[in-house]
Amino acid sequence: MDKIRLNGCRFYGYHGALAEEQVLGQIFVIDLELAVDLSAASLTDNLEETVHYGHVFDRVKDLVENQRFALIERLAGAICQDLFKAFEPIQAITISIKKANPPIAGHYDSVGIVLERSR
Fold first, then answer.
1. Are 2 and 37 in contact (CB under 8 A)?
2. Full domain range(s) for residue 79
3. Please, which residues have CB within 8 angstroms of residue 119's CB and are 6 or more apart in sequence?
């Protein structure tokens, strides 16, 4: 299956199990891989034959910045549900959500999750 990728999308949101995360917020870094049959688009050069990644970005941005979840697992699930509903050609989604600065004492690059979902 062909893939559309959106890498390193950065949004500011208020997701987290700890009260500080719900009040202060933080940056979330999201990577998406969408399984889509791109054979028609690769032959026709027609935007209607693919999934417009700008529209995908806008939907993800809206969810991250305007909804609140205690768990990033739930945020990722909500994003997958929304994208499947909005874009019929998407057959599978791999989503990674990272928090660069969660309220955890220690030294690390980030913490996060990866979900894989399919129709």
1. yes
2. 3-118
3. 84, 90, 91, 92
CATH at 112: 3.30.1130.10
Give the integer Cα–Cα distance in Å for 21 and 34. 29
> What is the rounded distance in angstroms from the CA atom of residue 100 to the CA atom of residue 53?
24
Segment 36-67, tens digit of pLDDT: 999 999 999 999 999 999 999 999 999 999 99
Catalytic residue among 3, 61, 98, 99: 99
Average pLDDT, the chain: 95
Which residues, in sequence order, are bridge partners of residue 93?
Answer: 34, 117
Please name which of 6, 60, 59, 1 lies closest in space to residue 35, comparing C-alpha atoms. 1
**How many angstroms separate the CA atoms of 96 and 75, rounded?**
11
**How many angstroms separate the CA atoms of 99 and 103, rounded?**
10
Burial status of residue 34 (CB atoms within 10 A of its CB: 0-12, 13-18, 19 or more): buried
Active site residue 85: no
